[in-house]
Amino acid sequence: MISRKILLKDEDIPRQWYNLAADLPTPMDPPLGPDGKPIGPEMLAPVFPMNLIEQEVSQQRWIDIPEEILDILYRWRPAPLRRAVYLERFLKTPAKIYYKDESTSPPGSHKPNTAVAQAWYNKQFGIKRLTTETGAGQWGSALSFACKLIGLECKVFMVRISFDQKPFRKIMMQVWGGKCIASPSNETNAGREILQKMPDTPGSLGIAISEAIEAAVTDSSGKTRYSLGSVLNHVLLHQTIIGLEAKKQLQMIGEKLPDIIIGCAGGGSNFAGISFPFVYDKINGKKIEIYPVEPAACPSLTKGPFVYDHGDTAKMTPLLPMHSLGHDFVPQPIHAGGLRYHGMAPLVSRAVHEGLLTPKAYPQLQCYEAAMTWVGTEGTICAPETSHAIACVIEEAVKAREEGKEKVILFNYSGHGLMDLSGYDSYLSGKLTNLELPQDEIDRMTAIFASMPKPNQGKTGKW
Amino acid sequence: MISRKILLKDEDIPRQWYNLAADLPTPMDPPLGPDGKPIGPEMLAPVFPMNLIEQEVSQQRWIDIPEEILDILYRWRPAPLRRAVYLERFLKTPAKIYYKDESTSPPGSHKPNTAVAQAWYNKQFGIKRLTTETGAGQWGSALSFACKLIGLECKVFMVRISFDQKPFRKIMMQVWGGKCIASPSNETNAGREILQKMPDTPGSLGIAISEAIEAAVTDSSGKTRYSLGSVLNHVLLHQTIIGLEAKKQLQMIGEKLPDIIIGCAGGGSNFAGISFPFVYDKINGKKIEIYPVEPAACPSLTKGPFVYDHGDTAKMTPLLPMHSLGHDFVPQPIHAGGLRYHGMAPLVSRAVHEGLLTPKAYPQLQCYEAAMTWVGTEGTICAPETSHAIACVIEEAVKAREEGKEKVILFNYSGHGLMDLSGYDSYLSGKLTNLELPQDEIDRMTAIFASMPKPNQGKTGKW
């Protein structure tokens, strides 16, 4: 009988995270300060607790997962590896399609893998309260959930337009004890300034990040820190449990290493989670095609240059070495809110630069078509972000059929779409368009970046 | 290491449903026609396909599950049996609390277990289209899902107030290809008549049932049938896969038979699913306490008499032998929409009458408190219906602590609450009240029933 679900026991959960930084052919470039010089880890101390900063700069290959974190993850981990037999049949492909089901976490996505770890390390460091921003709401929900279980307060600045359009996401955070505030708000200088100038602004992720960081660093008790849901090294580290589990699960059924690995990529965390443990194998000589998939409307990897850029619109973060469309780039309103980020995780950017990953970009309509094919075969409703991975999976499975090759495809089913049904509604009623990025916008960005520092030019040092 | 998740492999899925009717100490009473005489199975033929009517009247203990149905159920079944270790710790109880997680189906509840079976049998019978009604939307979603995978059209009459208040449920049905119409509608005589008298009516489940049955029986092609999501014998039969899996899973870890089994009960289907395979053991001498849990606002088992009553407000169904609050009873607007049904499945009603089950009723606020305890320990957001089971679980676990007994408690986690967040919002903002049923209303019902036929008085024959 075909194994449709490959399930690990609790005792088989991975006990260490994998740190790709230890194995990259060239070392990571450090972040730069406003003066263009590398910053030291201590510069981040007002924003993050020291134990997470240590992980951020670590070069150690394996980092132990504390038992207390595992005890929380056991609520839904190890997560199932499933085989998409119904999609395989429909496509008449000889390819075997496996997917890691990250939709089984209580908030419904991969985000809690790092939310739980970050909340736990903050708690260990004596922190009482976390602040963060959220766009569509996945990350805000995940951090609220983690803080509830660990015993921290959580304040989420949610982009006003999403706050108004997605009242259920806000309630979800409140159920887990999170305080969810529309951004811009009157709680920060950054928010007040913008409200004064533009009282009717719909807000933006850039503004929300500025407010969340300000709320953390200005708390005079010193017991508040900021938490980020993607992009940074320690966030990606925590997500590698996804790929490590998948590797064990494939071994369990005697399956070979995947020929193709696919994940959608916004800030890069779910993609890194599924792929980095296999990038290790690729570095060590195995032949694996690895595809980060981004929206054509926000193509940082496929169209953006590899530069130093800020992580937020208001330039509160250091300059990070990454593929970017520019910190003031405002992506068009595609429904995959989690993929509407101007930059890309430095580790993912670096791995692309080294030729280890081959980024792809798909337009919105093709992704919803793929999601509907999934609905009609596997039966579940995926997140709009996840549909980007599925679009690529379908393309590769069809190619395998044409080539007559029994390839093994692994992808990350990063989350369900039960809180994102309005996007499906727009698609079904024919209102959606592709919203691709115009070439002149890309040219404008490229010109701006020409004068900025470039990673890996011998000018930058080490952390 | 404690087994937090007890997982069956696909090949261990039960291959037969269990039919409690074969083992009840006294046989089931037949439904009665408008003349008060037992109706024959053929009377149901315009409404249901003959293969399902055969299951409805079957006295056979075990009924084979067709391989083609299993092939669809494998998408999420066997479902996990989980142990609520975090709740146990919080309650400091020596009880072991196991729960069957039915929230893992694509529509998020136990409903697809019978939706898939019903759609498949209809398809086998040559039917092209199913009609049904839905209140909160769980059942309409499940039937749309099943029809999508099996290749039937599906038309859902959704109570207008829910249609307007829960736009996401409607979209969910549409994603699975279901056609969702606000009821009362202009598509049926029943709907048109009501709209003419009351153009602004919020609708009711009774009206929606009338419309769905009319739409099925008046289709001149003869290729349309009606589908019901609870109450009837064949619906409960299909749900027994829940308890049969749970029994295997408990055996797998060497656990004894449960001391206590709990499920929420609206029409009775999820409760029957978890409990009936164990009612078999109770009939055969094992000591098990089995609690169907209903809302205090709609207490058909604890306050309603065991009588013959119609399944719908418009009296389109035969008289069914059941506990009922009266077919014209309109329950108060508690958030557990799936428990707002005036009657109770005849099989459950009969088992209560035989002393095999001990019904309990809980007020709304206690149920939301229980749900919030669950959120803070196990971490997931349960459906408002499921919270009724959890309220009873917590009470029993605390009792076990007080008695110092290591009891085994099993309950059915019938669904998640991600589409029901507005109820949590009302609770958290202090707007909820208990909405218990006033005694004078019960007295009024009891008086009406005094003149109606009673089950089990020797006047009724056999099917």
From TrEMBL, chains A, B:
<dbReference type="InterPro" id="IPR001926">
    <property type="entry name" value="TrpB-like_PALP"/>
</dbReference>
<dbReference type="GO" id="GO:0004834">
    <property type="term" value="F:tryptophan synthase activity"/>
</dbReference>
<keyword id="KW-0057">Aromatic amino acid biosynthesis</keyword>
<dbReference type="InterPro" id="IPR023026">
    <property type="entry name" value="Trp_synth_beta/beta-like"/>
</dbReference>
<dbReference type="Pfam" id="PF00291">
    <property type="entry name" value="PALP"/>
</dbReference>
<keyword id="KW-0822">Tryptophan biosynthesis</keyword>
<dbReference type="GO" id="GO:0052684">
    <property type="term" value="F:L-serine hydro-lyase (adding indole, L-tryptophan-forming) activity"/>
</dbReference>
<dbReference type="GO" id="GO:0030170">
    <property type="term" value="F:pyridoxal phosphate binding"/>
</dbReference>
<keyword id="KW-0663">Pyridoxal phosphate</keyword>
<dbReference type="InterPro" id="IPR036052">
    <property type="entry name" value="TrpB-like_PALP_sf"/>
</dbReference>
<protein>
    <recommendedName>
        <fullName>Tryptophan synthase beta chain</fullName>
        <ecNumber>4.2.1.20</ecNumber>
    </recommendedName>
</protein>
<keyword id="KW-0028">Amino-acid biosynthesis</keyword>
<dbReference type="GO" id="GO:0005737">
    <property type="term" value="C:cytoplasm"/>
</dbReference>
<comment type="similarity">
    <text>Belongs to the TrpB family.</text>
</comment>
<keyword id="KW-0456">Lyase</keyword>
<dbReference type="InterPro" id="IPR006316">
    <property type="entry name" value="Trp_synth_b-like"/>
</dbReference>
<comment type="function">
    <text>The beta subunit is responsible for the synthesis of L-tryptophan from indole and L-serine.</text>
</comment>
<comment type="subunit">
    <text>Tetramer of two alpha and two beta chains.</text>
</comment>
<feature type="domain" description="Tryptophan synthase beta chain-like PALP">
    <location>
        <begin position="75"/>
        <end position="414"/>
    </location>
</feature>
<feature type="modified residue" description="N6-(pyridoxal phosphate)lysine">
    <location>
        <position position="111"/>
    </location>
</feature>
<comment type="pathway">
    <text>Amino-acid biosynthesis; L-tryptophan biosynthesis; L-tryptophan from chorismate: step 5/5.</text>
</comment>
